[in-house]
Amino acid sequence: MVLRLGLTKMAILTERRIENMKRIILSCLSLLMLFSMLTPWKTSAKSKSKLNKTSITMYTGTKVKLKNDAKCSALAEQKYGNFSECENGLFLCIGTGVGGAVIYNGKVLEAKEVPGFEFSHMIIQKNGLQCNCGKRGCFEIYASLKRFKEKIAYEFNLTTLRNEEIIKIILNNKDDVRLKYFLNEYIENLAIGISNLINIFEPEKILIGGGFTDYKEILLEPLKQQLLTGNLLFNKRNDIIIQLAKFKNDAGIIGATLI
């Protein structure tokens, strides 16, 4: 009884701590957004992160640390979530784009000079669709949730990309030929990109965060089956552990407190 009460108390304290951390980070993000609107930025891809960090410190007198959302999410899941007992894992943040992070031997991998691990910009289609980065055929163009939602909204004459409306359309039109095609196409493209990463890193577990988490009942199991049966993996598997991030869309906020 004492042990159970103690564990319950610890869980409550942990939840409160996480909520407090989220409030602090959200407040800081609001200040940074205001600061970015009032400050002239240079936007060179190679210098942006370093310049932002230096500029913020210079203007505010406060030392800051910057890390992309996917790596922050992986840190949160490693410390408090579904990577807590995982030595080698792959994290994907699927929403507006496709962010990524790799945990190898218990550590989040980092490139030396630049952020690195830009999974969203590996090419999965030669001479494919134009990406915002300037290249063609990037994973992000075919696998971002935003792209998926835009297609459905266009075909079904929606004026919003709100998840609630998109999900309602999907659930109410399960037999629609167009919808089946979009779902299958999206799953296939997503599986191609993820299988490339599995073949390179061979993770014990894959976690997905971002807006994708709202579509668990629609997308997660078909994605898993496509990975297992689509002749995509070099090392064949009977099963694959692919789950949602415990903290879903909040993982990045929580992880930012750990950098």
Describe the structure in your own words.
This protein has 259 residues and is of the alpha/beta class. Helix content is 51%, strand content 9%. It contains 9 helices and 5 strands. Strands 3-2-1-4-5 form a 5-stranded mixed sheet, with helices on both faces. A hairpin with a 2-residue loop joins β2 and β3 (107-108). The chain starts with a helix and ends with a helix.
**Main sheet overview:** 5 strands, mixed
**How are the strands ordered across the major sheet?**
3-2-1-4-5
Q: Low-confidence segments, ≥5 residues, pLDDT <50? A: 1-13, 41-51
Mean pLDDT level? 82
Radius of gyration: 20 Å
Order of helices and strands: HHHEEEHHHHEHEH
Number of distinct beta strands: 5
Q: Give the overall shape.
A: globular
Total helix count?
A: 9
Task: Decide which structural class fits the backbone.
Answer: alpha/beta
Strand % is: 5-15%
Terminal Cα separation, in Å? Answer: 36 Å
Key phrases:
259 residues, alpha/beta, five-stranded mixed β-sheet, 9% strand
Task: Give a brief outline of the structure.
The chain has 259 residues and is α/β, with parallel strands linked by helices. The chain has helices at 2-38, 48-60, 69-80, 139-143, 145-155, 163-172, 177-201, 216-229, 251-256; strands at 89-94, 98-104, 107-108, 205-209, 242-244.
